[in-house]
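Onboarding guide, step 5: your first structure request.
Type a short instruction followed by the sequence, for example:

Predict the 3D structure of this protein.
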Amino acid sequence: MESKEKYYLTTAIAYTSGKPHIGNNYEIVLADSIARFKRKEGCDVFFQTGTDEHGQKIELKAQEAGVTPKEFVDKVAGIIQGMCDMLNISYDKFIRTTDDYHERQVQKIFKRMYAQGDIYKGAYEGMYCTPCESFWTESQLVEGKCPDCGREVKPAREEAYFFRMSKYADRLIKHINEHPEFIQPVSRKNEMMNNFLLPGLQDLCVSRTSFKWGIPVDFDPGHVVYVWLDALTNYITGIGYDAEGSSTEQYKKLWPADLHLIGKDIIRFHTIYWPIFLMALDEPLPKQIFGHPWLLMNSGKMSKSRGNVLYADDLVDFFGVDAVRYYVLHEMPFENDGNATWELIAERTNSDLANTLGNLVNRTISMSNKYFGGVVADKGAVDEALDGDLKAVVTGTYAKVKERMAQLRVADSLTEIFGIFKRCNKYIDETEPWILAKDEAKADRLSTVLYNLVEGICIGASLLEPYMPQTAEKIAVQLNTKLRDFGQLETFGLYESGKRVTDKPEILFARLDMKEVEKKDEEMAAAMAAARESAEAAGDEGQAGAETSRADSPERADDIIDIEPKAEIAYDDFAKLQFQVGEIIACEAVPKSKKLLCSQVKVGSQVKQIVSGIKAHYSPEEMVGKKVMVLVNLKPAKLAGVLSEGMLLCAEDAEGRLALVAPEKEMPAGAEIC
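The system replies with structure tokens like these:
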């Protein structure tokens, strides 16, 4: 029997300082879709996730809660694992860094690195950031604050062990240059090379003495292992690595990992520290590390203290598991950040899930029952042009999806799959089954049309399974068939002619009332505001936030903000954009929208109507009379049913506050901005 190709996939392990929000959960759903896809391709998949449970933050939070650190992390780890299960995550291993076997191996790894001279004892003196658990030199600070999270730092000195990072830096640079696929997307690779590796690496502090909640350095009481050395090694300890040479057969089979899937905020730890640790252990490096973008809310990074957090359990209760999975997978670009709000999720649910997919399945089954008692039969009454085009689209989709998934472009894969359902809907419009049903002589043609629709839906549902497993299975059950292996998706006509579909089609996704969605959104916002006020009143600002990544700290609110760089453009591209000064002569709130204002903007001799999502920052009265910067030649679009003929440009700070961009000096309406 031919052995399957192995595929070892991991996520970053979630930090147990609080309940994860949907931006954190996105990663596990993304990983799950990849794992399920690889299984359907025939790979022997091992999918590991888990929790990161040591560190000073945990120790402090446990003290605040009046419990031991272990009691604290046990509770939060249970919440995190429960949310994975709720989101239908098909992980094979859930590791906790408080697991005995992991702690023993971390101690062995530390001792081995020390014995071979990679770790040495010294003292650390510098500026210390408690949330990031990191020391910084004065030159590394930004405006006197932590360069990672922007918070206050304090001078500190303590005895510590250090890892000789520079010993392996050249070897790592060589590996990255020779393996262009190692760090993805390419922008992440360039950032690591230019900002960290090429300027030169400093030795890394790998032990601490100022707190106790960590894995003890067994040969030097008082020291605990630095949290990143502890956390990163989970990828090998979880599959049976042994630093003394007695690794399990599972480890030998699975390592190196095929993919580490992580957030872009912890790319440095995974692409610099982790590979160097592996080099010191003389172990192969992972094949690929993918730093995915963030899922934002209202275009701002989610933070409970800022009141812009969405939680997966709330969303699942309202929209359902697969609707939430679909949204976070479909709306996240490959390289840039995505955006999520209750309104956006509802709109996508109504358009794609209720209309394109749900309505298609329901119509097809209902027509099969109405015209043929539920029997689906291919009568061979073919229209070569119409049927041929449908079949080409349906059978050609798997190859496109496979190519997109090989590039980890999951959102694009879903778009390709929904192309099948859209084509099937178009096929209904083209063939008009209700017209065919009026002519008995066209009964065979009608039967063939319905057979083609059922077959197209079967193939589409089989492709959809890794992303929306429950929905795919529901479709298969209603069509009285089984989901197909990928090897069967390029052949049209495998649905058994003469089968009978269900006589009671289930509504897969009901259309949502946007008023109910808005009401729910307001309820959740009010509850969050009340919780935040309660925490602030108790002087418990730290507990008001939910941080699940060591590097997931609120952005600094000072005078410097770094944003994700976009691809460079040529001057010719920029020259296509027409910017002019505009004067707002009238403004009003858009009915039934809590976010939009509709402005009448005078630009030269013209008046343009522009809809902007700035109601939370400006009243209609404040807007009138302002001189603003306008993108004039933006293609008109309808927002909340109101036509918008351009865009007002705004700046946004780290707290999500907006300010309209205005000319420094008095300029006439219509003046060109160049």
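Each response can be followed by summary notes, for example: Residues 366-500 form a domain with the Isoleucyl-tRNA Synthetase; Domain 1 fold (CATH 1.10.730.10).
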